[in-house]
Design brief:
By secondary structure, the protein is an all-alpha fold. It is built from five helices and no strands. The chain has one domain. The protein is extended, with a radius of gyration of 17 Å.
Length: 92
């Protein structure tokens, strides 16, 4: 192991020791529930307007301005990513 890997591992351990070992019950249900259009809109609408959300370079104001056109596809993409527990290649 490289020295920087050891430092990173140590830092991660220090942070993780303060977190619960498992997410159970209601909290698990909340974390894994489907995202709604309203939640997605609120997240995007509350971001800084010049903030770039993805690697595509579009700012959050683009997503707000074209919400009616892109909302369903964007929600499908978010849900697919959530369900697969992976960031889709199209995003990454």
């Amino acid at each position: 192991m490289k020295e920087e890997d050891v430092d990173r591992s140590h830092a991660q351990h220090k942070i993780l020791q303060h977190l619960d070992k498992a997410v159970i019950g209601q909290k698990n249900l909340e974390i894994n529930k489907e995202v709604t259009l309203e939640e997605l809109y609120n997240i995007i609408n509350n971001m800084e307007k010049d903030k770039v959300i993805r690697m595509d370079g579009f700012q959050s104001k683009f997503y707000v301005a074209y919400w009616e056109i892109i909302s369903i596809d964007l929600l499908k993409m978010v849900e697919e990513s959530r369900k697969s527990c992976k960031i889709l290649d199209a995003i990454n």
